[in-house]
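Minutes, project check-in

Agenda point 3 was the complex the collaborators sent over. CS summarized: two entities, 550 residues total, and the question is how they sit relative to each other. Sequences were read into the notes so everyone works from the same version.
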Amino acid sequence: MSSAAVPVAIILGWVILSLVIGVLAGIKRKFTLEGYLVSGRSLGLIFLYVLMAGEIYSAYAFLGTGGWAYSYGMPIMYAIGYGALAYAFGYFYAKYVWKVGKYFKCVTQADYFHVRYNSRALAALVALIGIVFNVPYLQLQLQGLGYIVNVGSLNTISIKAGIVIGMVIMMIYVYTSGLRGISWTNLLQASLMFIVAWAILFAVPFKQFGGVGNLFKTLIQVKPDHVVLHPPLGIAWYVSTLILCGLGFFMYPQMYPSIYSARDLKILKKNYTLLPLYSLFMIPVILAGLTVAAMGIKLGAPDEAVLKAVEVSYSSWVLGIVGAGGFAAAASTASAIILTLAGLLSKNLYTIIKPTASDKELVLASRISVILFGVTAMVLALFAPGRLVALLLLAYSGITQMFPAAVLGIFWKRMNKYSAGAGMIAGLITVTIIKFGLKRNPLGIHFGLWGLLVNFIVTIIVAYATKPDENFEKFREAFA
Amino acid sequence: MGKSQINKSALFLGLLPWIAYVVISPFFNTAKPLILGMPPLMFWNTIWLVITSICLYGAYRIELGGGLLE
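CS then shared the predicted structure for the full assembly.
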């Protein structure tokens, strides 16, 4: 038996288990659109929690976080902070989204904008922004999946084979079982991610340096910059990134179906009180990345840091668990994004062409869209890795531009479709110009936050220059 | 407590993590002393994940007691 047999068996066993659970969760059900996209608003605390934890923390919570810790050190603390900020914001914001969703039967993010602003065009714009910025993200997840599975299987499963296997498995269970399938498989994935971080990665600094304290004592000597924030990733960058990411988090379209899927408000809110504890798992990931840096290991690419940490600390079969963990992290995020984008395409874009589409027809359109996005992301990951990097660099800043329309709209009658749309577009133009024209962050402040500033100013000016929204009272009925 | 008072107390608890990270954490940007083996900023950011949970749970209890989650 070759040394790769055990890790390969672990990875494939895990992938097949995910497929079986995901398919069984929904195969015998006849789904309505609400059942398919938001699990009939029926999820209890455990399934809601693992659904969100799994979808929020992706393959790059391991690869990127570890890589940043390895390359820069303390600036990665922004990633620890913004999660807490986002959950503290979401604890209050999600209530409105959930109530609107229940009252107006929303199933997508664009639906929320549609019922607030009574504008199909604005909903289409929101859907397009979500799709444009998330397809590259999907592609990135698949590339990460392929890479981790490749290393985890000791190069037995090629990167391309990993990408294809991963995507096909996801497409099958998302197609058959919708959000219900994702919440069931995420019970597996979120648990495995937690185990990989706490049982495997957390021990790395102890194995190499005898403890966390010794790790940092070594790091201070060999890489003194790594233990503090330092320009260009200095304090201005750190604080502005915290604010941008803390606010922008809930503008990602995949947040909305999972909020709608909560059974009641108590479950939804309790879920947000518990999510900060899940994100503690990034601490072991960061420690693993820092360990590799303190050991003075040179990596081909920073993203290799976490896998290198495991490689130098454990016998090779442990890499199999990490490989399965890579699938877990990527699949739990990518499957939720695929379903979200499919919902946007069928419910908010397809209905423009065919407004009379029945519920049954929209379920079918969503399922076809799942395949469409899955295949698109797979082809991009296989044949054009890195091609959409520009979109990825803009993604967080771009998505965040929906913030004024989403949040001011809840309380402010003057907000209408014109101010919402103008603000979003002005913000998008601003971030694009700064990122690709200016190519640096003015005053060291994250360019996305500059976009948000311009966005707010334009939104408020247009809101005062146009008539208050007649649809506002109707929208507020959701909170009565 | 009235309804608006409940809302204010809950919001205040939700604001604490923002103050802890955005306003206070930059002051911990030094290499030493190591706290529980970690640089001060890392210690502060980590411990506040736990405190954030506690704050939000506090907000939850207040809102629940005030009947705002029905």
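Noted in discussion: The mean pLDDT of chain A is 93.
Follow-up: revisit at the next meeting once the mutant set is ready.
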